[in-house]
Amino acid sequence: MLYLRNDAIGTAGIKALCDIDGVKGVKWATPNVQKLADAIAACDPSITWVGGLAEVWAPAFYAVGARGFTSGLINIWPERSLAIHAALDAGDYPKANALIAEMRAFEDIRAEELNGTNVTGVKAALMALSNDCGPTRPPSAWPLTAAQQTRLQDFLTRNALI
Questions:
Q1: Mean pLDDT, residues 15-33
Q2: 17, 15, 59: which is closest to 38 by C-alpha?
Q3: What angle do CA 73, 100, 124 make, to 5 degrees?
Q4: The pTM is what?
Q5: Kind and range of the H or E element at 26?
Q6: Per-domain residue ranges for the chain?
Q7: Cβ–Cβ < 8 Å for 85, 61
Q8: What's the pLDDT tens digit per position in 89-107?
Q9: C-alpha–C-alpha distance, residues 88 and 67, integer Å
Q10: How confident is the model at residue 24, as a pLDDT?
Q11: Cα dihedral 97, 99, 101, 103 in deg (nearest 10)
């Protein structure tokens, strides 16, 4: 499984990597949807493309051929992640987008500080759910700011997670 966080190598470079014997999939973690579409079209159709930017990017990635997505939310609200996945697999983009809108506050927190709160948001939510798994490692931001923590608590409460 390749993990692409940058598409600067271009479609030909991505194809060359996908042509390596044993490569079966790509975790696509760049917001360039058109480059993803180009890469999917250029590569062997047996390659599985997985969205690597969580639920908020999943509809766009699915629209061009990716299947599946990474998720921080699944750690705290697995039913919601699975519902989004099911909606996308069924091609029900309005439903998927509505489900994503209701969890967007969580992803917004994770995206702050140049994604420095990506893991921090998940771990802070787990702590709020009495599943303390310790702090993040540098260079992650730790802990959440008071404002971020308040927004996280509001999100968890609003969605009956705590």
A1: 98
A2: 15
A3: 30
A4: 0.94
A5: strand 25-28
A6: 1-70, 74-162
A7: no
A8: 999 999 999 999 999 999 9
A9: 9
A10: 98
A11: -140
